[in-house]
TrEMBL record, chains A, B:
<dbReference type="InterPro" id="IPR010525">
    <property type="entry name" value="ARF_dom"/>
</dbReference>
<protein>
    <recommendedName>
        <fullName>Auxin response factor</fullName>
    </recommendedName>
</protein>
<dbReference type="InterPro" id="IPR015300">
    <property type="entry name" value="DNA-bd_pseudobarrel_sf"/>
</dbReference>
<keyword id="KW-0539">Nucleus</keyword>
<dbReference type="InterPro" id="IPR044835">
    <property type="entry name" value="ARF_plant"/>
</dbReference>
<dbReference type="GO" id="GO:0006355">
    <property type="term" value="P:regulation of DNA-templated transcription"/>
</dbReference>
<feature type="domain" description="TF-B3">
    <location>
        <begin position="137"/>
        <end position="239"/>
    </location>
</feature>
<comment type="subunit">
    <text>Homodimers and heterodimers.</text>
</comment>
<dbReference type="Pfam" id="PF06507">
    <property type="entry name" value="ARF_AD"/>
</dbReference>
<feature type="region of interest" description="Disordered">
    <location>
        <begin position="385"/>
        <end position="405"/>
    </location>
</feature>
<keyword id="KW-0804">Transcription</keyword>
<dbReference type="GO" id="GO:0003677">
    <property type="term" value="F:DNA binding"/>
</dbReference>
<comment type="similarity">
    <text>Belongs to the ARF family.</text>
</comment>
<dbReference type="Pfam" id="PF02362">
    <property type="entry name" value="B3"/>
</dbReference>
<dbReference type="GO" id="GO:0005634">
    <property type="term" value="C:nucleus"/>
</dbReference>
<comment type="function">
    <text>Auxin response factors (ARFs) are transcriptional factors that bind specifically to the DNA sequence 5'-TGTCTC-3' found in the auxin-responsive promoter elements (AuxREs).</text>
</comment>
<keyword id="KW-0927">Auxin signaling pathway</keyword>
Amino acid sequence: MYLCNERLPSVGPSVGSMAQPAEKVEKRSLNSELWHACAGPLVLLPPVGSRVVYFPQGHTEQVAASMQKEVDAHIPNYPNLPSRLVCLLDNVTLHADIETDEVYAQMTLIPVPPTNEKDAHMSPDIEMRSRQPTEYFCKTLTASDTSTHGGFSIPRRAAEKVFPPLDYAQIPPAQELKARDLHDQEWHFRHIYRGQPRRHLLTTGWSVFVSAKRLQAGDAVLFTRDNKGQLQLGIRRQNRQQRVMPSSVLSSDSMHIGVLAAANYAAATSSRFTIFYNPRQSPSEFVIPVAKYQKAICHLQVSVGMRFRMVFETEESSVRRYMGTITGMGDLDPIRWPNSHWRSLKVGWDESTAGERKKRVSLWDIEPLTFPYVLCPQPLAFRAKRPRGGRDEETDSMLKKSSFWSGENSTDALGRLTFRTPSLDSWMRPKQPGLPMQENEHYRALEAAALEEIRTTSTAKNPMSRVQSSIPSSQMQFQPPHVLRQSSQHGELHMPEASGPLLQLSSSRPQSPFEVKVPSKIYLEPLFMEAVQLCVTLRYLHLGIHLIEI
Amino acid sequence: MYLCNERLPSVGPSVGSMAQPAEKVEKRSLNSELWHACAGPLVLLPPVGSRVVYFPQGHTEQVAASMQKEVDAHIPNYPNLPSRLVCLLDNVTLHADIETDEVYAQMTLIPVPPTNEKDAHMSPDIEMRSRQPTEYFCKTLTASDTSTHGGFSIPRRAAEKVFPPLDYAQIPPAQELKARDLHDQEWHFRHIYRGQPRRHLLTTGWSVFVSAKRLQAGDAVLFTRDNKGQLQLGIRRQNRQQRVMPSSVLSSDSMHIGVLAAANYAAATSSRFTIFYNPRQSPSEFVIPVAKYQKAICHLQVSVGMRFRMVFETEESSVRRYMGTITGMGDLDPIRWPNSHWRSLKVGWDESTAGERKKRVSLWDIEPLTFPYVLCPQPLAFRAKRPRGGRDEETDSMLKKSSFWSGENSTDALGRLTFRTPSLDSWMRPKQPGLPMQENEHYRALEAAALEEIRTTSTAKNPMSRVQSSIPSSQMQFQPPHVLRQSSQHGELHMPEASGPLLQLSSSRPQSPFEVKVPSKIYLEPLFMEAVQLCVTLRYLHLGIHLIEI
DNA sequence: CTGTTGGCGTCAAGCCGACAA
DNA sequence: TTGTCGGCTTGACGCCAACAG
């Protein structure tokens, strides 16, 4: 089993695949970018050295999921083990199952006494980002791809993006490809461009790979190219194909008790303990950055009927947001885990296809709906045609639907003047180099999503959503300032109730400017819009702020 | 994963493969005989409802072995958890890993307060026997067997014993065979008798099986035929091919703690807990019948230098005994498991090939060497030529070497009169039906082994063995009665010191006759031999007895 | 642009007896 | 008695373009 210690490649941007000098034999470096590509775009690992909140309850759920068995109610609890432990994330190593290539992360945690909230803001979740490689593609295998009858048909754009360019002077153009998997095993493929019409194919070597990895139609294969031009490939199996946990070692009960006992012992002695996080098998993350947790808990006022959105991964390895309504609040397991924040929200989903989505989520899983929320995206010209295989197709389609955005410094479709704000731009620009483009994409998604919510009359069948739709959308879009002033007199900024969550602002000290990260280009309406904008922006970043009454 | 509840087929002899009525869907019956055939001849599961001793320490060793990792010393112990728990064996289900066909048993244990020793004798280990099927064979695969070049060559006797007879009128004789594996999956093979010289082969269908099970040369395949003539087949993988435990679920530490915490909680609350026993992966059994345990602990006086023998499984699925000497005694882990009897004996082995054999064993693992020990085996005529693939080839060879045995009621090679003893025969005969033949084999092995030990001058390089060989073997075989009388005056029967172990007899009440199980035919020397014989026989059965001075 | 299918050449899977240990 | 090998046959693998959605 190959490992990659996340500590090592933490210096410099986009390292990860650099061949480590052989400091430790037996532990060769596992490609971090490839790992994250296999894990998917939603998997964000907290940085080593940061403080996290560990939920034994969630850990237990992962164990249950991996054994495809419910948590039995008769499992004893540890009276002194709280439902959450604040820990120092001492170490993270990335692994891949030797049999299935399933990715998982080993985390070493050291319980620490909880400190006051201010500490939480000292370690903001700026570094918490998915290290998705830029040059990659992911394709779900078709029946033809996996049959013994032929090879692998590569989408044109994908091949052109990540494979070395073919010499089209040859007839037919072809080359030998070598790619390494997570175990550093090398696979050889013949890459040829032929057929009528022309297409990219992997022929010789492909079937060996398929049978060795036991791939089936529905599984996905992904190729990445690192900064040295080396190809990597990984697999993402279809969910249904979850391996039945070999329970021939420990009984389900012992495993559950073991999780609790290990955490309990570590908490009692302030000693290290080790957990495995299996991102594609665990129902939810159970190691959360302290900052993310506290901001959700302390600064997010939720109530039944509140509308929210939440990110999910699509089949094509992109992300999209689903809308829902909070239908209830309360402990998931009031007897064994009272006063836990773990999945304390009961939710309903707008779309009828929501059968598979969770009925319960945690506070930090959701994005509250706020408005007005106006952040201009990158100019349209900046984006390529249609980024096939990209990770945010929803954003694209939304941006298409809303013929709303136009070029820089112009009036938009609703006649508002958009302009650049150099001051905000400069101090809010992230200091760290590397991947600003991806971050932009992230916030563009937020923008478009919020906008979509505003512009669309809810079509939900959930009666709760009628609360929102009772206000005409035209009125909802632009509340006059006095609505804001009404409630801001006692230091809180109440959004109109129809918009959903109360915007509860904390009384903690303002953030240092350099700790705040926002898109590099922000377009604001004058005055009122700017103030609200700032609040909302910071709000999305889960940052507390004093609001001085306007 | 298919299950077989050992409770169900517990009535009637050699059931096991009867199609259970579909009481519980999803849990189809797993063939018990096939399971035991795969587990090997040494695996004896205590009967459901009996009392057993559970060793958390041994359980922990199995967990460590399955993860190929040593038990870390930093694992905390539970102060209140004793090194052994007396439990009621509430349930046993047989399983087979869906991926590897690895057999394992799930046991449900209920800790019970330890009672006095007498109770132990109330549940003798008579029922503790391996349910090895009689009609079976096991072959280790050769390179030719597993290559893609051809089929599977079946040893002649094996094919004739378990396969349906071929119609030799056909040219060539051939038939279609169907056999089910532990998962009840059916496999089809073409069985043909051809070649020059003629031989039995499996051709069509064989390579499918090999690739599906991922068999390699060195792995073993076994076929059994149940009482309805249905064929079963199982596999036994070579040891080296231990699967790397997918540790992507729980950390090693959590697993170890889980084992201890589950046992600790069950002991504290007298509630059920579940363990998995993986006979081919666990270094030692860690669920021992109470009777076996207590007889070893209470009635076995061991000392450094003592000679013993111990059963091992050979490559060919037969058993053989290796000789060794106790070189030390003491706790394996004095800090965390003080006063544990778990593997408290340090041992050395006579043969130089003993590198793989354990350096530490438990008291109940060994058979002490005693003498004189004269039990006649079955008449030679009873046994077939050479039982290839049988389970006790060593016994056979020993019996061959000692041209010592002859027919019934005759003088043996040393001129002693052997005769039948009806009285002993009748009250010592086991009451339970089923497999008396196998039990006879078992004791025949003991006889032959003891005899061999007596007759052979030790060739051990271990200096300890010189103690024994200092007495001429002729003298050792027949000690005059006065030697016995010398030391029996204070209620103990001392064997001559040169023989090794002291024969410490317990002071517990004599056994009820019907609880004692000995070979059905016993030939005794008159008077003195009869008394010694009785002592030694009972001694081998780990039964305590009052000895009335002769 | 790409999933599926028919055509077809090639090579390894797999059946056979020879031979020898 | 049975493990391995060379000879030989055949059918599945796998490369190709056609075609269609």
